[in-house]
Write a structure and sequence with these properties.
With 489 residues, the protein is of the alpha/beta class. Helix content is 28%, strand content 21%. The protein folds into 2 domains: 295 residues, TIM Barrel; 141 residues, Galactose-binding domain-like (Jelly Rolls, Sandwich), CATH 2.60.120.260. The chain has a 5-stranded parallel β-sheet with strand order 1-2-3-4-5. The longest helix has 18 residues.
Length: 489
């Protein structure tokens, strides 16, 4: 059937292929304002950023085996957790150095577009796995080539010029002093930062600040891998070093290789809680996925089993408890009720509790006796030495500060119990020095029903963390513990 021009136009309008009305009546498309340094800095400090590589393609392999279908599935998963930004690490040896390969520039552009389609900005990290510090001019030209398409692109929120800069390397520090002002001159509206590894922490950040007095960073990127029980004190120490420059937590995590999934979840919960109290609104977990065997290119990282198990998800896509923690942390809602496993109903691998001095008596989960639910924890035939009594211990996720009044309680039951079985509080400073503690009265000897044991204590001067211990020493019988509670006034 032949359509007249008028009929063809009418059908086109019905299909929505052309706008209705004369051209002169349609308003011109509104041009979006280019991002400024100020607007990008607001985004930096509120970004819910996920560190990301595919489970089967870590580090530079993400780019050399670029799989858009897998990447989009992973970005969708991060989006479901509440992520609003994703970190993309760029490797000169993969992208081409000193000349950027068009193929890899295109892959980066595709990644940025894919992230935007999932409602996420991108934080770029340049010069990873690279140390040609004697080539400031060449490296600057390379950086400009990477960044040129994104000068006024609001999808790019910030640029980290070097991941975990070695502040003990004079060449690295000299390079940083040149590259930061040079990139800033070329891209004045782009927030710039550097990071140091989690070991040197605040000390390394102080070195960068001292070196960059002529061209200070726009913000500092703190990588937190320390003891999460003392997260607030550690974060505040880092903030004090770089003040008044803003700080974000660009990496934070613990591996489930050598730790339980429950400990990983509690670690991240403590970091989120501490960051909130310290006024930091951007915490970036490391990392979205565990890594499969062979996923990491040949390197020092590849040879370390711990590096394969930092993910919020397993290699098969199963969520660990930490995923729910991150979702709550980003949303600003209460942490999962089961996180602390206070009634011991979780499987051991899902619990943050761990044995202390297990060689003197190992706690065991049992279904033989329970006050509520189906399980309790028992200790049988325990000993004692100069280090103390064996115990089952955990640290709360609430940050500890001097002067706080803490309360803890547990129900205990004995069978032919001897020695001393108690609930106790132990205080530590930011350097892990023990500052003292408090303990409940002991469970009576012999056979008892469920007895409520309570302990109260005030966090002393210098306290940065507290541990709750369920202790049983010199016990030739058995004691069961169930239904712990802890709170702070």
């Amino acid at each position: 059937m032949k359509l007249t021009r008028a009929a063809l136009l009418a059908s086109t309008l019905l299909l929505g292929l052309l706008p209705a009305g004369p051209a002169h009546a349609r308003p011109a498309p509104k041009k979006e304002a280019a991002p400024t340094l100020a607007t990008r800095m607001v985004a930096v400090q509120t970004a819910k950023t996920i560190n990301y590589y595919p489970a089967n393609a870590g580090w530079s392999r993400m780019w050399t085996t670029f799989d858009t279908r897998q990447i989009d599935a992973d970005l969708a998963r991060a989006q479901s957790l509440g992520a609003t930004s994703v970190r993309a690490l760029v490797f000169p040896q993969a992208f081409g150095y000193p000349n950027v390969k068009a193929e890899y520039a295109s892959k980066l552009a595709t990644f940025v577009s894919m992230a935007a389609a999932r409602g996420m900005t991108v934080k770029l990290t340049l010069f990873d796995w690279w140390d040609a510090y004697d080539e400031p001019g060449t490296s600057l030209a390379w950086a400009k080539t990477i960044l040129a398409p994104y000068r006024d692109d609001k999808r790019i929120v910030a640029v980290e010029l070097k991941n975990e800069l070695d502040t003990t390397d004079p060449a690295a520090m000299a390079w940083a002093k040149k590259i930061v002002p040079a990139v800033r001159a070329a891209y004045p509206n782009m927030p710039l930062t550097l990071s140091v590894d989690g070991v040197v922490g605040a000390t390394g950040m102080a070195k960068i600040k001292a070196a960059m007095t002529g061209s200070p960073l726009d913000f500092y990127d703190f990588h937190f891998y320390g003891n999460s029980e003392r997260a607030l004190a550690t974060i505040r120490r880092a903030q004090a070093v770089v003040a008044p420059t803003p700080m974000v937590i660009g990496e934070a995590g613990v591996s489930t290789q050598g730790n339980t999934e429950g400990e990983q979840a509690a670690f991240l919960a403590r970091v989120f809680q501490a960051a909130t109290l310290a006024g930091i609104r951007s915490v970036a977990p490391w990392t979205l996925n565990d890594f499969a065997a062979g996923a990491i290119p040949e390197s020092e990282v590849a040879g370390n089993p711990v590096q394969y198990r930092y993910g919020l998800y397993t290699t098969t896509g199963v969520a660990k408890p930490a995923a729910a923690v991150v979702k709550a942390g980003w949303a600003g809602t209460a942490m999962p009720a089961s996180l602390m496993d206070l009634s011991f109903e979780s499987a051991q691998a899902q619990s943050p509790w761990r044995a202390y001095l297990p060689e003197l008596g190992r706690p065991a989960r049992t279904i033989a006796v329970a006050r509520t639910g189906k399980q309790s924890v028992s200790m049988t035939g325990t000993d004692r030495n100069s280090a103390g009594s064996p115990s089952y211990r955990v640290a709360p996720i609430i940050p500890v500060q001097p002067g706080q009044k803490w309360h803890a309680e547990v129900f205990a039951r004995g069978s032919k119990a001897t020695g001393s079985s108690q609930i106790a509080l132990s205080w530590f400073d930011v350097n892990d020095k023990w500052l003292g503690g408090a303990a409940s009265p002991s469970l009576p000897a012999g056979n008892t029903g469920w007895v409520r044991l309570t302990v109260d204590g005030v966090a002393p001067t210098g306290a940065a963390s507290v541990q709750v211990h369920l202790k049983s020493g010199d016990n030739s019988g058995t004691v069961w513990f169930d239904d712990v509670a802890m709170s702070v006034a």
